[in-house]
Amino acid sequence: MGSRSNSNSTQATHNNSVTMATQGDNLGIMLNGNNNTIIDGGAFDIVASIVDMLPSVFGDGLDAVTSGFDTAEYMADIGAEQNENFLNAGLDLFAGVADSQAEMMQLSMDSLSEAGSMVADGYSEYTQATQDTTESAFDFGADALDVAQRAQDSAFDFADDSLTDSLDFARDSSELAYAFGENALASNQQAQENAFSFAENSLTDSLDFGREAMQANTDLANLVTDTITGTSENMAELASEAMMQNADLSESTVDAVERVNANNVLLAESAMQAASNAASDSQGQLAAGYKDMLDFADRFSRSDGAALATANNKTMLMLFGGMSLTVIVVAVISVMATKGKK
């Protein structure tokens, strides 16, 4: 028996070489083969650091906005204090004018009281002087009548004594005695007439003096009345002028307060608008800057070499730090500018 063996062997080898090249920004991750290692060069740590810093940066922006509103509130408080000072000054001035008017009225009342006292005292003195003069005149008349009566009594006594002592000579001296009595009666009558005439003249002089004193007192009272009237008119005119000036001053004070309020409102609105614009611009710039930095980190983290990625990440850290510092400086300048407008 024979054996037979057939063997067929076929081997085909195909080698495919693929070359992959990336041009421009490397915006994605390119993997080729198995067990590849992704090299990010620390980009993910940078992104995490940026995310951690976002609250503090936004907090700084919020503090800047809060400072702007605090500045507006401070300006409003200043305006309110100025208004209060204006109102207090107006009230003090009005109180001073009122006190001056009260003092002037009190002075007028004192002048009227003093003038009334002078008139009353003058009339009382005139009445007393008239009464004293009248009493003196009547006393003098009574004394004169008493003297005449005593003279008459003496004459009759003398005649009676003469008649009694001269009974022997009655016939011879009767005519003489009667003549002497007649003369005595005539003298007594003349003395009485003189006494009554003197009393009448004294009473007339006293009444004339009283009338002159009354007229003088009346003239003095009229002078005092005219003086008081003129003084009262002058004080009334002065009080009216003072009240008008006080009203004008009050109106000027109110106008000044209204102008200050309007300026404070405009200034507060400008400050709040500036703070709002600064906050809006800062937040917009921060958002745009963060987006650019994230895109920049995304691009640089996918560079073709580990060393190049590391260098790019360091560059990005420096740029981010500089931008953060710039944002903080801008916020501080905005706050200082807002406070500088008060």
From TrEMBL:
Residue ranges crossing the lipid bilayer per the database entry: 316-337
Q: What is the lineage of its organism?
A: Bacteria, Pseudomonadati, Pseudomonadota, Gammaproteobacteria, Alteromonadales
What protein name is recorded for this chain? Uncharacterized protein
Which superkingdom is the protein from? Bacteria
Keywords carried by this UniProt record: Membrane, Transmembrane, Transmembrane helix
